[in-house]
Design a protein that fits this description.
- The complex is a heterodimer of chains A (101) and B (216).
- Chain A is an all-alpha fold.
- Chain A has a single domain, classed as Helix Hairpins (Orthogonal Bundle).
- Chain A is 74% helix and 0% strand.
- Chain A contains three helices and no strands.
- In chain B, helix 5 runs antiparallel to helix 6.
- Chain B has one domain.
- Classes of the chains: A mainly alpha (101), B mainly alpha (216).
Chain lengths: 101, 216
């Protein structure tokens, strides 16, 4: 297993970890963090797979990731502001517990 | 699902040059020597253009949700104020360097914009705000600037006889620098404005600092 695959598998692990937390956690802040962890996993996977070349890595995934990081940051900011507004509007920044009978 | 993804990745060929050869072959036509910058601004210009639009859209939504929330703020300590004065000029210098070096080495608009945003956040955290002087038209123009210059450059190329975002080789380097410079300013400002979490309120005086700072 090469270094590229090691990093790619780590990316997948991060993605799955984030997805799990996204589903399990009720608090919205934790969900936002979970989405960020998922995003980091995808970036890691893309960059890792870009290095499977003889000489210099493939620049296309790198370009996608560098723009993607900035977009992810702005999307996170938007999500946080929405959460903040929800809190100010008297709601809770948390999804209700599911009733099981 | 994790096992499935891992299996899919492990089944991929260990060696896949992807598009790196295509990029390397066409790098002479892009106007810059750094393949990532060439891809970001030239070969995949559409993608970057739309990503600038996404940034702007996020800011517009945040601003439309209301003005800056009121925060309880403590006056910044001596160390923070001193370090801010020291670091902000340095960060602006680094951003300029990253923007310029993006043509030949790793760097470019997004990296420089992030560094600029870091400088802005440092200022915000030490009590600086967009004052009345900045929160009006000039802030809006700078925020839209990156996208506007990008679109105008693309349209100018259409008038020039080419296709949208197809730069003539002779001017490509200069055009990319102009687009990236505008994009850097926009990205930096958008990120800072997003951090503030709302439309800047115009009642604050330009570059105002908390009270105790003024007493010193």
């Amino acid at each position: 297993m090469t270094t590229a695959f090691f990093y790619a598998l780590t990316g997948i692990a991060l993605f799955i970890l984030g997805l799990y937390a996204l589903i399990i956690q009720l608090h919205l802040l934790r969900k936002i963090l979970a989405i960020n962890v998922m995003g980091s996993g995808v970036f890691l996977l893309l960059i890792a797979l870009a290095t499977r070349t003889q000489s210099t890595p493939d620049p296309v995934p790198q370009a996608m990731v560098i723009t993607g990081i900035v977009v992810a940051v702005s999307a996170t900011a938007l999500a946080l502001v929405l959460m903040r507004r929800l809190l100010d509007a008297g709601g809770k920044a948390k999804l209700p517990e599911e009733k099981t009978d | 699902m994790g096992a499935g993804l891992a299996y899919a990745v492990l089944k991929l060929p260990a060696e896949a040059p992807g598009l790196s050869k295509t990029v390397a072959d066409n790098i002479d036509m892009s106007g810059v020597d750094n393949p990532v910058t060439a891809v970001v601004v030239n070969f995949r210009g559409y993608d970057t253009l739309l990503e600038m639009a996404v940034l702007l859209l996020a800011l517009l939504v945040v601003w439309s949700l209301g003005s800056e929330p009121q925060r309880r703020e403590l006056a910044p300590g001596e160390v923070l104020v001193y370090l801010t004065g020291l670091l902000v000029p340095l960060l602006i210098l680094v951003a300029g360097y990253l923007l310029w070096v993006g043509a030949v080495a790793p760097g470019g608009a997004f990296q420089a914009g992030s560094v600029l945003a870091a400088a802005g956040l440092l200022l915000v955290l030490s009590g600086w705000r967009f004052g009345a002087r900045f929160s009006g038209l000039s802030l809006r123009i700078t925020v839209v600037g990156g996208l506007a210059v990008f679109v105008l450059a693309g349209l100018a190329m259409m008038l020039h006889g080419g296709r949208f975002l197809e730069y003539p080789i002779a001017y490509a380097g200069a055009l990319i620098l102009v687009i990236e410079a505008a994009a850097t300013l926009s990205i930096g400002l958008i990120l800072v404005a997003l951090f503030l979490g709302g439309r800047p309120s115009p009642d604050q005086s330009p570059g105002s600092r908390p009270e105790s700072r003024a007493e010193k």
